[in-house]
């Protein structure tokens, strides 16, 4: 390699480093929680050799990631416990990159809608017990997101609810 070739390589390397740094600086601003989470889930799907479409939505300051497919490929990942675990892993991945706590919500294959329907049935049954004379009705332990949904459903029916317990035992109690 001649001295002139070496100078050209050094110039190219310096230019690439400047361009690379500019790209990194731009990416840091535009690479937000949703992008990081979507990339993480996309990598997971690739590792599992699954196809899925990822939709990103932001509501009330919270990122919602929805993974859908045309068939049944995602059904193994759509189980409630699996979705909860993947959501936590995705939140950790976002936090590791941003340094900030993530409150994103992950839905795989319609699992959140299915769970919301199930929670509606639980609330309806609990309200029926209270209307039949019980003073309170306790629901099983659930995640903070699910408890929030329950509180909203209970309020819509004109009843009150509170979360009780600690950690994995935290549950909702409904009263008149």
Give the topology.
Layout: H1 3-30, H2 33-47, E1 53-59, E2 62-68, H3 80-98, E3 105-108, H4 111-131, E4 136-138, H5 144-156, E5 160-164, E6 171-175
Helix pairs in contact: 2-3, 4-5
Describe this structure in words.
By secondary structure, the chain is α+β, with helices and mostly antiparallel strands. It is built from 5 helices and 6 strands; from the N terminus they run ααββαβαβαββ. It has a 3-stranded mixed beta sheet, with helices on both faces. α4 crosses α5. The relative contact order is 0.09. Mean pLDDT is 84; it is low at 1-30.
Low-confidence sequence ranges: 1-30
Task: Please state roughly what percent of the residues sit in beta strands, choosing from under 5%, 5-15%, 15-25%, 25-35%, 35-45% or over 45%.
Answer: 15-25%
In round numbers, the mean pLDDT is 84
| Helical percentage | 40-55%
Largest sheet: 3 strands, mixed
Q: How many DSSP H or I helices? A: 5
Number of strands: 6
Q: Which structural class is indicated by helix and strand composition?
A: alpha+beta
Distance between the termini: 85 Å
Name the overall outline. elongated
Strand order of the largest sheet: 1-2-3
Could you give a quick summary of the protein structure above?
This protein is an alpha+beta fold.
Jot down its keywords.
elongated; about 20% strand; alpha+beta; 5 helices; single chain; three-stranded antiparallel beta sheet; disordered N terminus
């Amino acid at each position: 390699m001649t001295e002139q070739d070496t100078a050209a390589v050094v110039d190219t390397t310096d230019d690439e480093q400047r361009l690379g740094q500019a790209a990194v600086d731009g990416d840091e601003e535009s690479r937000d929680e949703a992008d990081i989470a979507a990339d993480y889930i996309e990598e997971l799907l690739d590792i599992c050799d699954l196809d899925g479409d990822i939709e990103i939505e932001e509501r009330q300051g919270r990122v919602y990631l929805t993974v859908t497919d045309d068939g049944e490929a995602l059904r193994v990942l759509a189980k409630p416990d699996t979705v909860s675990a993947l959501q936590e892993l995705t939140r950790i991945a976002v936090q590791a990159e941003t340094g900030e706590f993530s409150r994103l919500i992950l839905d795989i294959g319609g699992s959140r809608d299915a769970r919301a329907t199930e929670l509606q049935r639980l609330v309806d049954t609990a309200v029926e017990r209270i209307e039949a004379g019980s003073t309170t009705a306790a629901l099983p332990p659930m995640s903070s997101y699910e408890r929030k949904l329950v509180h909203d459903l209970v309020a819509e029916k004109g009843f009150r609810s509170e979360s009780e317990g600690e950690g994995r035992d935290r549950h909702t109690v409904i009263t008149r």
